[in-house]
Batch of 3 targets.
Target 1
Amino acid sequence: MQYDMLSLEARKRYKLLSSLVVPRPIAWVSTLSPNGVVNLAPYSFFNVMGHDPAVVALGILEHPEKSLKDTVRNITQTGRFTVNLVTEELALLMNQTATDLPCTESEADMAAVALCPAVANGVPGVAHSPVRLECQLMQVISTRTQQKIVLGEILSLYIQDELMIDPSAATIDLDAYTPIARMGGAGLYCRTSDRFNLARPDSQTQPLD
């Protein structure tokens, strides 16, 4: 089956891409409105896009009724956001915040999500998230619709002590870290505990990434 993505209905494009490009890590994004209201929402069109500088990318789809989602509006107006990574233990709580509230109300308050102060960007993070990326806006890229691609530089990285094997070598205990990821289909997620190793080819005989 071959699809012409330029003429395909937008909803079908979403269903195909969200089912095929998997698993996708979840960015549980906290932002502050100019009035100080904490917005908290999960996004799975997300990843890091480099380390020098350390860059986060968020793909935020258009809201079906409003011109912009609260997350994009807050990031654009304040230039700041925090990405909280989601583990198995936080899955249900994260899912509760995937709701549409007025911009004057906080999903964190609604779901009783414990927050913690920021170190570098002033945007509170999720206290029980084992990994938090405090970001400063670099660029918002607008596509032909209200869909936005947000690029942010990571100013500060928090890692729960229990996840560190050797802080001096920046070594993470992957058995202790239990992030979940988004799959296609309504409400479908996966665990990341089933892993395997492949030795990388010799860089002198094989091209690098």
Target 2
Amino acid sequence: MLIATAPDMIAVVGSADRTQTWPADAELDISAYGGPPRPRVGRPAPLAVGLGALLLDEGGYTGPRLLQSVGHDEPLSACVELAAEVSASAARVGLLVMADGTARRTLKAPGYLDERAVPFDAEIQRAVSTGDLTALHGLDQTLARELMVTGWSALQVLAGTFCDREPDTKVLYADASFGVGYLVAVVMAAKEDPTEPGR
């Protein structure tokens, strides 16, 4: 769906150990995560960014791309600033945000069970499904660390991208496979209504 909108560029944003722009040919080294070895063309990218690049490749996208990691511990202000930089990198930027939710939803979860995980993921889902992305700025970063939310900083970049407008959203999937909160959604800039001046 993202590729079908024909953006001028697609930016993949994912949380990682540090904030960095990666070469456009960087890719996921799946063998590092137990997958079969594949011939590599570019240098390895962090998991979230590399997985996003792989999704673009599998979807047949061959246009310009920006691969951007954002450090797990970046403050909110730095994430919002990065959102502005990514948004300004082309006239029409498609954004592919790779951000895990909590990893403590069930007894079999990587971080075991924490009763705070379900409401935390529910707030992410509520914010995205209603288009109230600025509510993501209110997610507690310390609690996110305790719940093993590796995507907190990437979610802040997403929210920063839409801080001045309410998007049209559609949630395609929301569940806790393997005890980790996952949400797949389409978030589009709302089209302006030409009959309403000032919008």
Target 3
Amino acid sequence: MDVKQRFTIAAPADDVWQAFQDPALLVDCLPGATLREPVEDNQLKLTFQVKLGPISAAFAGEGELRLDDEARTGGLQGRGTDRKSNSRVKGEAAFAVFDEGAATAVELNVSFSITGKLAQFSREGIVKALADQLTRDFADNLQQALQSEPEPAQAATDAGVSADETRPTPERAETPAGSRPRLKSVDTSSVNALSLVWRMIVNWWRRLLGKSSA
């Protein structure tokens, strides 16, 4: 199944592309996603919690992030397994960053497949509604994360430090754990997935009763 999304961030393209080079930040911005181990060589080990219809799943898996700095494009390949529902998912997410002057556009193209118990609820309408919600929340969280980092000149002014003392050093200091702002989290069950499932069940029963009465 393929899902295409596009969203806009009110920030320079350079800043947005820099954010896409920080896998830990991207995971923080995606509702339901959690890193199980620190990122090494763009290898991600994470857990992704999702709810489709009446089934909740927590996929544990691995992924690899690839980046093309010159083209400002990249991709994430991965796979995961939910032992509770005996379901598996694998896929690839390709993304591209475009400079639009005062803002930056990001295009996503996600291709994936689901097998196991959860596959029966991965209908196009349900997945599209879930993807729309996740994309909106990811964009909001990324926007919030970018806005929470003050410009060096402004930060120096607020702290009473001269501009010469704020020049960047070759090495970037590590961000202390827990220092990032709390990002928006979402219960994906609110994406109307359950209502869509029940609507399909009701329609199916109506057709069945209609055939029986005839």
